[in-house]
Amino acid sequence: MSTVNSAGDAGLDPRVKAVFDDIRATRGTDFINNFWRYLAFDPALLESTWAEVNRVMATPSGLDPLTKEMIYIAVSVANGCGYCVHSHTGAARAKGMTAAQHAELLTIVGLAAKTNHLVTALQVPVDAVFDQDAAPRS
Amino acid sequence: MSTVNSAGDAGLDPRVKAVFDDIRATRGTDFINNFWRYLAFDPALLESTWAEVNRVMATPSGLDPLTKEMIYIAVSVANGCGYCVHSHTGAARAKGMTAAQHAELLTIVGLAAKTNHLVTALQVPVDAVFDQDAAPRS
Amino acid sequence: MSTVNSAGDAGLDPRVKAVFDDIRATRGTDFINNFWRYLAFDPALLESTWAEVNRVMATPSGLDPLTKEMIYIAVSVANGCGYCVHSHTGAARAKGMTAAQHAELLTIVGLAAKTNHLVTALQVPVDAVFDQDAAPRS
Amino acid sequence: MSTVNSAGDAGLDPRVKAVFDDIRATRGTDFINNFWRYLAFDPALLESTWAEVNRVMATPSGLDPLTKEMIYIAVSVANGCGYCVHSHTGAARAKGMTAAQHAELLTIVGLAAKTNHLVTALQVPVDAVFDQDAAPRS
Amino acid sequence: MSTVNSAGDAGLDPRVKAVFDDIRATRGTDFINNFWRYLAFDPALLESTWAEVNRVMATPSGLDPLTKEMIYIAVSVANGCGYCVHSHTGAARAKGMTAAQHAELLTIVGLAAKTNHLVTALQVPVDAVFDQDAAPRS
Amino acid sequence: MSTVNSAGDAGLDPRVKAVFDDIRATRGTDFINNFWRYLAFDPALLESTWAEVNRVMATPSGLDPLTKEMIYIAVSVANGCGYCVHSHTGAARAKGMTAAQHAELLTIVGLAAKTNHLVTALQVPVDAVFDQDAAPRS
């Protein structure tokens, strides 16, 4: 149950079709998950989101692909986005996440949530040593 | 400004002193950051939290220490915990996080937040392919 | 699947029946959506909530009805309330929200979420110019 | 640093003055905390909020006053509202919360945050037994 | 639909079986709810979580069991964890929560959410009187 | 107190200088608020964020500029981002938001937060009528 119609494969807006074609080519599979099919209700939002996801997540960089996916999962869990947790857990597995790494990711996420709440409840003041503006610039 | 008193170094409860001594020995520094000084208002909570943080974050495991810290930062940002963002950004730097990796971490966190909100706004249904219970068990 | 029973139309508590009658008269339809049927488990909470929603959302004021609904959707998305996103997207459409306005609303919500997370990750200090208490009072 | 001006004690709007007088009489103290002074930027919002807080928190009911304050703290921590954590921790102490009860409250809040995040990460399906709509009505 | 497989009752890892046996013995029922069945994907996480829940929630302490469950519900609502709201509402009922107490709990949760958002929107500065570090130590 | 250094006006990276020049030209003021000065720690993130903010918020579209700012404030409040609330409340005032409109915005935000939490606590099922996928496509 959703708030907009999803796009099928027929009768697509040319801009939507171009993005779908690029998703298929980039991923090497015909399957397009629901996020893109629903985002297609607005071609401009679909285009800009796909371009950003592709640039951030698929461009070789200083973080390896699996680490990126685990960071994505962590944010999605903390923001309570079920779909996002599902899709990025799937992506992390496809990039080699083992069951042990998954368990460790969740253990850290749970611990961070606990200490986040304790800090908020205690209203702990930030130690001066953590202030980067006070640090000597390199 | 906080909701409980912080503990100094004098006149400590023996259980608090034991944790502070262990923090200093484990980290090889005399400095104890505010989280532990405020958590000391309850020796049992201090003990159990330090034990858990130590076990999860400092035990060699399938994720390297820097990856763990970046996951911790990601959760803390999404949960809006300023102190936690400060302290774990400091910890990640101490474990070798470069400015480029920090920038990439934040880029992923910002992108994930955006797509999390889009998914929630669209109420995208989960694709059947992401259901692990439906997957063949190994 | 819910945590309380929903109210049907028969055998209602008189206070619940009075609110249901008022909802039907105000909206000019016999349909009563689930929020009110479940909130009916406590007549006092039903009465006070309906009175507040009616006063805030239906009283002519300095913001037009569609703008109000879009603000409501924005909060509901950020709070991760799926039901609320569904019901207020429906209400916004009934008040004239076009597909283009819906897309623009979501684009802003997604952008705000991204910059919210970046600000939290950077712990940006508030500029003095934004302090209203420091502004001259009119 | 705030987004609106706070109200002092001189030259007040009569509706604001009436609420301030009622706060002082109800609480038996001349002190008015900042929440009310800033909310005074809109007399209608000040009136309705004070009326609601008074009705919910100060009317004798099936939950004792201290339990109510601890629930309020729990929500405020989870929503990350520092001011609210401060003011309601103060209120809970004024109603008799001991240091041990405070520590236990925080221990539960931290544990709930941890399991909340684990459940979201696992996307645990709700057990049928928890469905109240399926339960026999009394 | 979940991100990991759930554990049935056959062919269990001995550590998982030991926890399941302890859950059954502690609760006096053969039923094991899904949280534990899914958490079983990692025996270490299952063991530590069950031990923590048991210690915090089931050990006699300065807060009565029902108050603890209502605090747990409050956090789960604010964190938007549907499963947690279901399971702890069930637990609270089992510990004697009446419909009137449930309604009052929700009334407080809703009010706290409202004032939390107002405080954040106004950016109310914390009153000096709430600073515990400035208070005389006992 | 922040997690990265802020950029002054001297010795800037050319890409940072170009964005700062564009911000000044676009807004017709020499003032650059802290968000951009801190985001400057990563020129690529600064460029892409400024481009997106400019495109979404400053391009004439189907929503008027003040409505856009109020939606931005609503998301920022619900996400608990103090800096964002300050800066976008300032921006909304600059675009003509009156005190009455500000009060009404906050009234809606507070009400939405309350009903969001009630819906989550009740776990209200979505009415079939809100399912857009079931609606006839235009």
UniProtKB/TrEMBL annotation, chains A, B, C, D, E, F:
Molecular function terms from GO: peroxiredoxin activity
SUPFAM superfamilies: AhpD-like
The Carboxymuconolactone decarboxylase-like domain, residue ranges: 49-124
InterPro entries, alphabetized: AhpD-like, AhpD_core, CMD-like
One Pfam entry name: CMD
Residues annotated as transmembrane: none
PANTHER family: CARBOXYMUCONOLACTONE DECARBOXYLASE-LIKE DOMAIN-CONTAINING PROTEIN, SI:CH211-175M2.5
Full protein name: Carboxymuconolactone decarboxylase family protein
Lineage of the organism: Bacteria, Pseudomonadati, Pseudomonadota, Betaproteobacteria, Burkholderiales
